[in-house]
């Protein structure tokens, strides 16, 4: 019997050894994977024992996310508090127990909890753990300009839409405003209140970051891209003339201009942009071919998510869409070239993407990688990381960019965008109005940069559910945000 | 006593080990007290004293009745129960008090069994059918309307007035005594492999299946049947029986799986807990996260995270089925591995007793008891660690639960009785 007993013993010990191995697996090998799980409630609580890093606007004074110390059953927790409420809620996001995390609170979690792998941080937090004191996370300073952000939220009012502002030379995101917004302090406390938020559009979706994740029809603002492709090809020039009969023929049928009552007759390319004449762009689109236009759109960043630091699922790529999915045409026959050229062909863009387009035009054709995190600081204030401006691509030649600037300046000085004029500042811009098919409701937009001779900001304003045009609804918003920002600059 | 010198040395060794365990217990309670001084009173420190007193009582009982028994089993059992009570205490001081009372009852039963059976436990063999019947009765008890109770979807409990216990724990021991007697008697016949001799065995298989079906719990069925197969193998030396038995069990389990939704759910959670992380997979996942959070060194006793920031518990059944995930978080891999090593050492000592025992009944009894102890540990921890589907049985001596504590102290007494006799028969006494 003893042989059998030994074998049974071996089997039993084998089972227990398996337990030791499995425990080792879960406590060493699998730890990182488990910690990253969104449903890990233990980790979420553990991170509330950490004094999370603060998140500041670019002035390093306006705290967008701070902590509130509370003791529960003998344990000290640090809960998040958002002193500015909904001001930059969509970028900053939230860190909660019940609804996990979103925005930068999610994507920068390692920095904010001191779990990033910089040697100094590792040493500091390990030392804090050994001493048994509260672990403190690193602070983050954003590129967001508090004053510009406030101006944008105020200008948007209750409307559904977004304002994105970039600094053309660096790619800094100066404003990322999405409306309607929500108070991130309510996410934990009263989530139902967020669901009750209404805006001036059928789907308020207050949690949606419209700036980087909203899908808008660009309308005529897309003409800037068509013009970029046309001018950069060398086949077209600013003062070349076209004939506008008030429509253009596509697939054997006329496609009308926005204003069908009066054809412009003979116009230059510059004037076609200035007055947003669809027929001219329609014909250019047919001549260039849709693939060329799409190729240029891609140079400006279309078809990839805006490369921000927020979580990728909170950013959407712009481009043609088919049945709700992004779609990249392989042959020219899949796209209506004329409608594409004036921005009506199933195009869906984010305001951030349109801001990138104007920023590249303003920056002599070079597209800078947009970024919202300027630097990361230790609790004592020394710098751990800083974002360096980085060129993503050269979208167009400098000459093309200069020509586009001339066209866009004409739009503001005496075209469809006069509402964006700022005394003493040269502004270049382009309006957009897209009919949604719902009676009299438009998606309107305005993209601009200023000052033209020394561009300091590039802006995109996009609105849903408007009865007016881009020139009457979006341009005034752009004007007040630009004034706030340029004023803030000159005050410094 | 003829081998008096050796005996004293064995018991003195036990006493020395117990003192070490007593110190560890004191350190455990002290660290919980320090970490949670805001929550718990300094009276907690007296717990360690009470525990040391209890161990001494058990030790004296052993010294009186089984002087030649293995000197490591009692200290290890003491250590495991102390670890359990410490962790339960850290979770809920009032429950630790109740558990402490159960340990007192357990130690009393331990002493009682030693006292009653000190002359010759082998006379139990004569009552094997009574034990078999008792086991059956105890297993059926929870199914009876009126007293049976379903907790967490498993029908394993019996409630009489304010008392609630799991008869399955005691059934386990009755079943092992029955099997040891029955297999000792029938082993030659069974080894010949004539078909008609397998009637009773098929009946046992049917019983295990019935238990499985009736309790809605794979764990108990697996435990009983696994113990049965191990003992059958030791008795007959026929591996084929184990394989055939295993195949039968798998077939039966598959059948149960097809019928019982709860078993299906358990299996699908096991295969992919992340398919439904907020509902059916929640418990297993949060338990894994708890273990993972412990990492290598653990958070330290009393400093683990088991509650939401609002103070609500995060892991259901933490003190009973999931006590290991609490321990693994607070003690880390170092502590969890040490705990598992204690289980291994306990099993090693148990199997060693089986090897040293002189007669078939004693060997089978020791193997049965030890294997049941080890397999039960594997079934619950394997479930928690996602090696096998999760089932609701207790971790021997550590989990919160009276019936489990008492049953395992009785199991310990059984092993010590066999050990005492084996060592005595060896004449010159065994070197440990």
Strand content of chain A is: 15-25%
What strand order characterises the main sheet of chain A? 3-2-1-6-17-18
- Given as residue ranges, the uncertain stretches of chain A (5+ residues, pLDDT < 50) are none
CATH topology of the largest domain in chain A: Beta-lactamase
If interface size is counted as residues with C-beta under 8 Å from the partner's C-beta, which chains form the largest one?
A-B, 45 and 60 residues
CA radius of gyration of chain A is 27 Å
Radius of gyration of chain B: 22 Å
State the distance separating the first and last CA atoms of chain B.
19 Å
Textual characterization of the structure:
The complex is a heterodimer of chains A (492) and B (432). By secondary structure, chain A is an alpha+beta fold. Chain A folds into two domains: 48-142, Penicillin-binding protein 2a (Domain 2), CATH 3.90.1310.10; 146-378 and 388-491, Beta-lactamase (3-Layer(aba) Sandwich), CATH 3.40.710.10. Chain A has 19 helices and 22 strands. Chain A has a six-stranded mixed beta sheet, with no helix packed on it. Chain A has a five-stranded antiparallel beta sheet with strand order 8-7-22-21-20, with helices on both faces. In chain A, strands 14-13-15 form a three-stranded antiparallel beta sheet, with helices on one face. The longest helix of chain A is centred in the first third of the chain and has 28 residues, at 2-29. The N and C termini of chain A lie far apart (92 Å). The model of chain A has no long low-confidence stretch (mean pLDDT 92). Chain B is mainly alpha-helical. Chain B has one domain. Chain B has 14 helices and three strands. In chain B, strands 1-2-3 form a three-stranded antiparallel beta sheet, with no helix packed on it. In chain B, strand 1 (148-151) and strand 2 form a beta hairpin. In chain B, helix 11 packs across helix 12 (323-356). Chain B is globular, with a radius of gyration of 22 Å. Chain B starts with a helix and ends in a 7-residue tail after the last helix. The chains are: A alpha+beta (492), B mainly alpha (432). At the A-B interface, helix 1, helix 2, helix 3 and strand 3 of A face helix 8, helix 11, helix 12 and helix 13 of B.
